[in-house]
Design a protein that fits this description.
single chain; mainly alpha; about 0% strand
Length: about 55
C-alpha cells in the first residue's frame, strides 16, 4: 500500500518511524491515563463513599 516495496530501505524507514511513534505514544498514554485517573479519584459524585465501588 502507498508504494510499499518491501526492500531494505523501506524496512529501515518503517523501523525508524515505528520507534518515533512509540516514543511519542508511550508518554502520551501514561500522561492521559494519569490525568483521567486523577480526575476520577478526585471527582465528587453524590452517593459514592469510596473511590473503588459505587453505592
Amino acid at each position: 500500500s502507498f508504494g510499499w516495496t518491501g526492500n531494505a530501505k523501506a524496512w529501515t524507514r518503517f523501523e525508524e518511524v515505528s520507534l518515533v511513534l512509540a516514543g511519542i505514544a508511550t508518554p502520551l498514554v501514561f500522561s492521559v491515563h494519569s490525568v483521567v485517573s486523577f480526575d476520577f479519584a478526585t471527582s465528587v459524585i453524590p452517593g459514592w463513599h469510596t473511590t473503588i465501588f459505587p453505592p
